[in-house]
Amino acid sequence: MKSRWNDDDAKRAVEAYGAEGVNEDIALRVYTTRLIGRDPLLVLHGGGNTSVKTRAVDDLGQEHDVIAVKGSGADMAEIEPWGLPEVKLGPLREMRALAALSDEAMVNTQRLNLLNAAAPNPSVETLLHAFLPHKFVDHAHAAAVLSLVDQPDGTDLAREVYNGRMGFVPYIAPGFDLAKAAADVFDEKPDVEGLILHKHGIFTFGDTAQDAYERMIEMVSLAEARLRQGRPVVFQTAHVPAEPASAADIAPILRGACAIHHPGQDPTRFIAEFRSSPAILDYVNGADLASYSQRGVVTPDHIIRTKNKPLVVSAPDNGDLAAFARSVQAAVETYVAEYDIYFSRENEAVGGTKTKLDPMPRVILVPGVGLFGLGRSAKDATIASDLAENTVRVITDAEAIGRYEPLPESDLFALEYWSLEQAKLAKQVVKPLTGQVAVITGAGAIGSAVAKALAGDGAAVAVLDVDGDAAEEAARAVKGIGIACDVTNPSDVANAFAAVCERFGGVDILVSNAGAAWQGRIGDVPDDVLRNSFELNFFAHQTVAREAVAVMLKQGTGGALLFNISKQAVNPGQNFGPYGLPKAATMLLMRQYALDYGADGIRSNGVNADRIRSGLLTDAMIAERSKARGLTEADYMAGNLLRAEVMAEDVAQAFLALAKARKTTGHVETVDGGNVAAALR
Prior knowledge:
- This protein has 25 helices and 18 strands.
- Helix 1 (about 5-20) crosses helix 2 and helix 18 packs across helix 25 (about 650-660).
- The strands form three sheets. A seven-stranded mixed β-sheet has the order 3-2-1-4-7-6-5, with helices on both faces. It has a seven-stranded parallel β-sheet with strand order 14-13-12-15-16-17-18, with helices on both faces. Strands 8-11-10-9 form a four-stranded mixed β-sheet.
- The radius of gyration is 29 Å and the shape is globular.
- The chain has three domains: about 5-225, L-fuculose-1-phosphate Aldolase (3-Layer(aba) Sandwich); about 245-425, 3-Layer(aba) Sandwich (L-fuculose-1-phosphate Aldolase); about 435-615 and about 645-675, Rossmann fold (3-Layer(aba) Sandwich).
- By secondary structure, the chain is of the alpha/beta class.
C-alpha cells in the first residue's frame, strides 16, 4: 500500500478551505480523511473515523479546546468540514473517570458539548479519540489487518508483524468501555504508534495529519507483506455445471425468493446487485464454501449492512432453471428459519428486549456465477455488494495464512441489535416504491419526468433509449442507469433487460413510453412508413412487455405494465393514421396483458395524454398547428376544458398513480385537461 499524501494537494486544501474560514487543522483533517476514505482496502461506506484536536470559537466568541471528529454515518471519501462536528474536549476527557456510561448517555453528553447544535452526532468512537493525547487520530477497518486478526491466534500474529510498535486492545463493542480500555493500553506503553483492535480494526496517530496517515499506510503495508507469505492456492474447487446459468437469468429468481409477502399488501422487495471476478469465483466455487462463508462478518459494523451470514445457494445449471428455483426457495426457507432461531436464542440471552429485524439475507453466494448484494434501495444493494467483495478478500487472505475466525455470535448480535442503531432504523421513512425496479423506455420529456416521479417515490430506475447519451442523462438525474437500446430490435431489448437484472435484480414496473409520430393521409402513406410506425408504436411495446413479463413471472411478486397510449388511439385526427392505428392496437395490447396475466398479479394499464411538449409534439409542430387554427401557442396548448396546458410532469403523475394502484388493471387514465371528444366510450 502506497501513501497518497501530496504536499501540493495538502497545501491547496489548506488554501481552499482557509478562504472559507476553515482553520488549517480542519483542512488537513478533511484532506487525509478523504485519502483514507477513498481507499476501499482501508474503509467502506461509513466505516472508520478520524479526528483532530484543535481550537474553535463558539457563537459567543469564546474559544475552546475541541475535538473535530467524523460524524456518525458520514462517508470519509467525500467528507467536508461540516462532517467533522466540533465537541468540547475538556468534558469528554473528564468522562474517563466514570465507572460506567450507557451508550445513550454517552451520545447525549457528546451532543450537549457540541459547538453547533445542528451538527451530526459525533462518532460512537469519539471518546476513544478524545482519551488519546495525539493531535491527529485515524481509524480504519483495513482488509489486511482484519485478515491478520480474524484468526484463532490473531493477536500473536499481529504482535509478530508489528514487533512492539503497536498496542493491542481486546475486543469490546464500540463505546465508553472500549474507549477506556484503549486508553489504558496506550498508557501502559505510550511509545506505540497505533493500536490494533482485536477482530475490529486499526488506529494510528501522530502530531501531524501526515504522520498519522502515513503510519496507517505503513502498518497496513506490514500486514499486507505478511499475507503475501500465504498459500498461493487457497480454495479447492468444487464441481460446478459446465454451463452455469447467467446472472441475468437467476437474479429475478433470487430476488423473488427473498421478497417478504404480506397478506393484502405489496410484498417487501429488495434490489439485488451482481458482482463477479476471478477472486469472487475462486471463493464461491470453493469446496468448503459452506464452512468459511458461514463463520460471520469480518468486522462487527458490517453486520448492520450484510447480516452475519450470507445465503449460499446451489450452482445453477443453464438447462434446468426450474430445479434451481426450487432449490433457492428451499435455501431461503432454511435461512429464515435459522435466523429466527438465532434471534430467539440471542434475544433471550439479553432479556428479550429486542425487536426482530427482517430475516432475509443481504448477500447471496452462487457457485459458478458470483455474488449478489441485496438492499431495500439500490444504494443499500451497492453497499452490501461492496462489503461482500471486501469479505471475499479478507477471508481469502485469512485462509491463506491460517483459518478465518471472526467474533462469536453473541458479540455480533449486540452490534446487529445495538440500541443506537435500532433507534436510527425506527426513524427511517420507507417510500411506497422502495425496493421496486422500474424500466422506462424513451428518454424524452415524458420519459424523463416519469423517471423522476418513480425515483422520487423510491424506485430504482433504468432508462432505455436509442440515444444512449440521452438515456444516461435522464438516468443520471435520478441516480439510475441509462442503457442504449433500440426497442424495435428484440436482441437489443433482451440485452437491456439482462443488464437491468444484473444491476438491480429484476423488474417490477415497465413504462413503455418510446414512440414517434408519423403523419400522412392514410390512403397516401407508403407501406414502409406505416410498417415503421407499427414497429415502434406497437411491436416495440409488445417486445418490451414480453421481456418484462418473463422477468416478473420468475420473481413471482406481480408487477405493473404501463403503456403510453395517446389520444390518437381513441380520437384519431386527420392525417395521423400512421401514428393512431398502432396506438389503438397498443391499447388493445394493454388489455390483453391484463386478461392473460392478471392471475399472476401483473397489472396492465395505460395513459392517454394529449398535447404534451415532447419529441412527438415539437415546438415547430406547436407553432404550425397554432397558426393553422388562428390561435396563440398558449391558447392552443391550453385548448381543453380546464384551460390549462398539460405538462410532461402531469403525465408522469398518472404513471406514478397507476404504478401504485394495486387493484387496478385494464384501465386507461386520461390526462388531457378535459376533452369530451377524446373520452373513452
